[in-house]
Amino acid sequence: MTRVIVFGGAGYIGSHTCKQLKANGFDPVAFDNLSEGYADLVKWGDLIVGDIRNPADLSAALDRVKPVAAIHFAAHAYVGESVLDPGKYYDNNVAGSLNVAQALRAAGNVPVIFSSSCATYGMPDSALISETTPQAPINPYGRTKLMVEQILRDFSTAYDLPSVCLRYFNACGDDADGDTGEAHRDETHLIPRAILAGLGRLDDFCVFGDDYDTPDGTAVRDYIHVTDLAQAHVEACHYLLGGGQTDQFNVGTGRGYSVQEIISAVTRHLGCDVPYRTEARRAGDPASLIADATKIRTRMDFHATHSDLDNIIATAVAWHRRDWSPASVAGA
Which of 168, 166, 172 is nearest to 16 (CA)? Predict the structure, then answer.
């Protein structure tokens, strides 16, 4: 049996991961309520429409699929929205994830890979962040991710439910074949917003802060291509199915790029200027966040091979140059 159930498999990272699972000999089955994902991005296996907040949906799906492993992406992921509407985030991200853990336990302790975040670290003292960096999230989104990590650690200790938590840094880029891509209804990420501004589809692109203690004054982040991120989930499946112990891993490159470097690269690939205005720093934005990715390299032999800046921007530009809109992706 090679079936892997992918909660949130119709979303940006979920759909890329389904493609990588299929390419690596697994049979992915997407489980999604389609509130933020798109049925048209489910191309590498079956789709089960369901909601992680409904235990009956989870039980029926697991009984039908009988997976060897599960990957859990099904979360709300807008930091600003989490501040304005924390109830929505605790309901889905925490209560829903508890349902997932309970269902996987009831199904025979199906190993699970959880989509966590560097947001669990909050405002770290060090620019280079390892898994031992204290976790002190500063917003409800980050707190929900940390709570689920704690749930999974407790379930591993008490019930022998194996899990891996992958703490992503900045997911970016798009499928090189154009089979799937970043299709958010409300786009908040830097790279697509810069591209859409350059293409004339966005008129409120802002750079928040140009006075950081960085080489060009703009914030520096670790960007990992979504194809590499998807492959990290495949490696985590192999790790758990091979008897690996419950653990947590950063997923990044160990290399940072500034906001201005991103804008310059987008300008180069588009062949036109990217209009933007500069605003004051946002509260809670550190000058630099870069992953120490040593642990995942040594424990899983994972290496990011698609995450050089030119490839990130080239694949993102190719995806967004198309006559794209959330409605067109959804087939509406």
Answer: 172
Which residues are catalytic, by number? 141
**Residues near 26 by Cβ (< 8 Å), separated by ≥ 6?**
2, 3, 4, 234, 237
H-helix segments, the chain: 12-23, 55-65, 79-84, 86-89, 97-106, 140-159, 190-198, 226-241, 259-270, 294-300, 309-321, 326-330
pLDDT at residue number 107: 98
If one counts every other C-beta atom within 10 angstroms of the C-beta of residue 271, the result is 8
Is residue 109 within 8 A of residue 161, CB to CB? The reply is yes
Report pLDDT for 332: 33
For residues 123 and 287, is the Cβ–Cβ distance under 8 A?
Answer: no
**SS3 call for 97:** helix
CA distance 118 to 227: 18
User: Rounded CA gap, 111 and 300, in Å?
Assistant: 16
- Residue 202's Cβ-side half-sphere holds a number of Cα atoms within 13 Å equal to 23
Three-state DSSP class for 217?
coil
Average pLDDT taken over every residue of the chain = 95
Nearest to 154, CA basis, from 141, 143, 165: 165
What's the pLDDT tens digit per position in 192-222?
999 999 999 999 999 999 999 999 999 999 9
∠ Cα 196 76 89 (to 5°): 140
d(CA 251, CA 307): 12
**Sign of the torsion formed by the C-alpha atoms of 104, 105, 110 and 112:** positive
Q: Are 209 and 281 in contact (CB under 8 A)?
A: yes
Angle at the Cα of 27 (from 295 to 11), degrees rounded to 5? 70
Q: Degrees (nearest 5) of the Cα angle 122, 224, 191?
A: 85
Partners of 258 in the β-ladder: 220
